[in-house]
């Protein structure tokens, strides 16, 4: 929709930016590279419609862009995880997020408990958002061809969460401890944090490995420990 409150992270040479500018009344874009900023600023269509911000997206307070924000971007592998976690702090301002990422990262984002790809990123993202694997983007779609496959993912922050409310830092802490040694059991990894009898009282099987514990169970653990 032309009036959407759209923000692009890392527009680069404008592969997404240009078609977005043709459809939108206005687009905000965050770019850290000064040379790329200069390139984008000289595009004729950008002069009246592009609000270009020179900054590191990891330092941005996304609440400044107002409600109903829609975020889009082709995220580099090295900052994708910290940037996704940073964006979650502003989930109440965001309607949805669409990103192209390395396929392996998207598989981790959407993974459910019980499979190998499930981990810290899966739990944290799925606590805040509905995460959907949309489609693959093959290497031949790019020039030059990358050595990795890419995929598109959509994250839609919950307006009514299916989970109990819990402190984000507490959830991140318990998930990090649980996955610190993936081959160990939950009881082993959480030694000194919660006892086997307490896990049993919560109905959580301490003999399971961290990838076998559901998002709801991690929320339950974080809530118990914070009380």
Characterize the structure shown.
S-adenosyl-L-methionine binds at residues 1, 10, 31, 56, 74. The chain is of the alpha/beta class. The chain folds into 2 domains: 5-157, Rossmann fold (3-Layer(aba) Sandwich); 168-226, Helicase, Ruva Protein, domain 3 (Orthogonal Bundle). 36% of the residues lie in helices and 21% in strands. It has helices at residues 17-23, 34-41, 46-49, 77-88, 103-110, 120-128, 168-178, 186-189, 196-201, 215-226; strands at residues 5-9, 27-31, 50-54, 69-74, 94-102, 129-137, 150-157. A 7-stranded mixed β-sheet has the order 3-2-1-4-5-7-6, sandwiched between helices. The longest helix has 12 residues, at 77-88. The model has no long low-confidence stretch (mean pLDDT 95).
List keywords for this structure.
cytoplasm; S-adenosyl-L-methionine; Rossmann fold; 7 strands; alpha/beta; 227 residues; RNA-binding; Ribosomal RNA small subunit methyltransferase A; 21% strand
């Amino acid at each position: 929709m032309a009036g959407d409150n759209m923000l692009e992270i890392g527009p680069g040479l404008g592969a997404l930016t240009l078609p977005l500018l043709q459809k939108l009344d206005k687009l905000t874009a965050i770019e850290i590279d000064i040379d790329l900023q200069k390139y984008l600023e000289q595009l004729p269509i950008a002069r009246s419609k592009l609000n270009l911000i020179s900054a590191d997206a990891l330092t941005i307070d996304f609440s400044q862009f107002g409600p109903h924000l829609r975020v889009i971007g082709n995220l580099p592998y090295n900052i994708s995880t910290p940037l996704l976690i940073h964006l979650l702090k502003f989930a109440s301002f965001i309607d949805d997020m669409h990103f192209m990422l390395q396929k392996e990262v998207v598989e981790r984002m959407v993974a459910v408990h019980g499979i190998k790809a499930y981990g810290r990123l899966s739990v944290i993202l799925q606590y805040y958002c509905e995460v959907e694997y949309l489609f693959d983007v093959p290497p031949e779609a790019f020039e030059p061809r990358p050595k990795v496959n890419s995929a598109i993912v959509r994250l839609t922050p919950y307006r009514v969460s299916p989970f109990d409310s819990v402190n984000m830092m507490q959830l991140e802490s318990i998930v990090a401890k649980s996955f610190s040694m993936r081959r160990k059991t939950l009881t082993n990894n959480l030694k000194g944090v919660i006892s086997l009898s307490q896990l049993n009282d919560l109905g959580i099987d301490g003999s399971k490995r961290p990838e076998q514990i559901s998002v709801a169970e991690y929320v339950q653990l974080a809530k118990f420990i914070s009380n």
